[in-house]
Give the backbone structure.
Amino acid sequence: MGLVSCGGGGDVGSGGDVVGGIVGGVENEMVRVDIAAGSVVESPLLVTGEARGVWFFEGVFPVELVDADNVVIAKGLAQAKSDYMTDEFVEFEADLSFVTQADSGTLILKKDNPSGLPENDAQVEIPVKFGSKSLYEI
């Protein structure tokens, strides 16, 4: 795992461990992800890690996988594996199935924001490469 940055602007970091940055105007560490930047991923993709309880709403937060053209090729929900009503880290897991002909893309983990207020938005973007099992035939 390596350091990844996050914030309302969705900064891209250099690896896949503690995600820190400015979230809601406060500097903090919010997410740890078990996928490092530049990793080769294949479908089905199991995304695991830990996030602070405030990242969840009702025990979930959205996860997307986009290709190099920002086309969403998979989306789902990361599910807390224990009580998320805490300020501490909570393990999560998300399964994404996808097909693509792209060589690369971005895994996006979004803080669940039921208020819809932009100042409460935060996301983590992890650049990834797609393996051969993710390709489909034309």
In short: The two ends are 36 Å apart (CA to CA). Residues 1-28 have pLDDT under 50 and may be disordered. Strands lie at 4-7, 18-23, 26-33, 40-41, 45-52, 60-67, 72-80, 89-96, 104-110, 123-130. The CA atoms of residues 15 and 37 lie 4 Å apart.
